[in-house]
Amino acid sequence: MRFAIYGTGGIGGYFGARLAEAGHDVHFIARGAQLAALHAKGLKLLSPLGDVFLDRPQATDDPRKIGEVDCVILGVKTWQVREAAEAMRPLVGRDTVVLPLLNGVEASDQLAEVLGGAHVLGGLAKVFSKIESPGVIRHFNTFARIDFGELAGGRSARAERLRQALARPGIDVAASEDIRTELWKKLVIVSSWAGLGALARSPIGALRTLPETRELIDRAIDEGIDVGVARGHAIEAGFKAELWRIYDALPADATASMQRDIMEGKPSELDAWNGAIVRFGAAAGVETPVHEFTCYALLPMERRARGQT
Predict the structure, then answer these.
(1) b/e string for 52-90 if b means 16 or more Cβ within 10 A?
(2) What are phi and psi of 35, to 5 degrees?
(3) Distance from C-alpha of 228 to C-alpha of 284, rounded to nearest angstrom
C-alpha cells in the first residue's frame, strides 16, 4: 500500500519505519530539524523489538509532492488536527482512508468536518516512543499496537484490508467494532495521571507509591469511566483493575507526553485530555472534580506556553 505519515514524531516515525521496512511505499511528512535530519542522515528507529534504519526515506514538508495515497496516518498534536486536515487534501483521493493515531476522542470528527466522514477512521496507538534526537526515534517498551475501526462501528472490507497491510513484525494491530469506546478508554488511561504528574512534577513511580496521589489517580479513573458510561460507552467491569496493572507495570521514571510538554513550557494536549473529560462530563451531567482541578490549575501554564498571557 501507499502510505503518507503526516507527522514524523514518536508515533508516526515508529509505525512509518516499520511499514517501510516491510516494503510498503511510505512517504514521511515532517518539518524543521526533523525533516533536515531525514534528508541528511535518514531515519533510525531504536526499539526492543528490533532496530530499523532507513538511509533514504521519502520525506517532504509538502503533501502536494506526494499526491494521492491509500492511507494517511496522522501523528500530529491534537491542536494541529484542523490545520493538518486542510494541508493533507492533496493526499486524499476517492478511496483514501485517514487514520489518526492521536490521544483524545475528537480528532476523527474534526478530520471528517474537513475531509468528509467517508474518508476517516477512528484509531489509537499504544506505544511508548519519542524523538530522541532529529532523525532518531526511541521505542521504550516491548509492544506497539494500533487499534482502529469505522466510526459508525461494525466491520468493513476496507478496515480488514488495512488491518492486513498494517500487520507486520513490530506492529500488533486489531480492527475494532467499537472504536469510539476504545478511544474513550485510551483517553481515561492517559488523562488520569498525566496532568497530576505535571502538577506534582513527578513520574508515575512517585505518584503510584504515595497514597495521597494514588488516591487522586483512582478518583480520576472513576470520573473518566463515569463520563464514558454516561456517553453510552460499554466499559467492562474489569477496566479499572486492568488500568492499575498498566500503571503499576510502567517504569518508575515514566512520564506522559502531555506532562513532559507542560514541564518544558511547551503547548500541550491539556484541552484534549483533562479538558475533554471536563467538557463531556458537564454535557452528560457527571461531576469531574479531580479533572477540573487538574485542568484549571494547569491552564495558566498552558496559556503562557501559547503566548496568550
Answers:
(1) bebeebbbbeebeebeebbbbbbbbbbebbeebbebbee
(2) -65, -45
(3) 9
* CA distances in angstroms from 194 to 77, 99, 153, 155, 203, listed in the order given: 15, 24, 29, 33, 9
**How far does CA 181 lie from the centroid of its chain?**
15
Closest among 186, 183, 112, 104 to 148, alpha carbons compared: 183
| Cβ atoms 30, 38 nearer than 8 A | yes
Which pLDDT does position 128 carry in this prediction? Answer: 87
Task: Give dist(CA 38, CA 88) in Å, integer.
Answer: 20
The set of residues, in sequence order, having a beta carbon less than 8 Å from that of 212 and lying 6+ positions away, is: none
pLDDT at residue 141 in the model: 83
Q: Is the pTM of this model over 0.85?
A: yes
Question: Using CA atoms, how far apart are residues 110 and 175, in angstroms rounded to an integer?
Answer: 21
| SS3 category, 12 | helix
Instruction: Render pLDDT for 111-159 as a digit per residue (tens, 0 to 9).
Output: 999 999 999 999 999 998 999 999 999 998 888 999 999 999 999 999 9
Q: β-pairing, 136-139 with 43-46? A: parallel
User: Which domains are assigned to the chain?
Assistant: 2-177 (3.40.50.720), 181-305 (1.10.1040.10)
Looking at residue 309, what is its pLDDT?
81
